[in-house]
């Protein structure tokens, strides 16, 4: 069983969504049949990854950063997808944080990395912003931990 976690940009442009979905499918296809995906199922990359994991017949593990995450952080345009993916997940881990904040996101990312054999990063390659908990930070943490990282950023992909 291969366990792959995801980190990635939430703000993909509309035109990027099918490009990223196809690139994720190609990246994950070699692991189909024996695959577990670990995702925070945030809008954008995390949810696209989770959908491809399920499409390929894999198990989905959802890591929820805090007890109030769905109520306070999931925007109305993402509620249906978030609920559908948490319902489809084989395991939903809600971290013990009361509120969704930078520390909760950083802990969620560390949890993803601890559970994974490798990381898929839907990432444009830009360096960390300095705020912590972002895609670039997670890629750096994974690399420091010796976790293999597959960067997915297809030609034509852009942030919205």
UniProtKB/TrEMBL annotation:
InterPro entries: YspA. This is DNA recombination-mediator protein A. It comes from Streptomyces bullii.
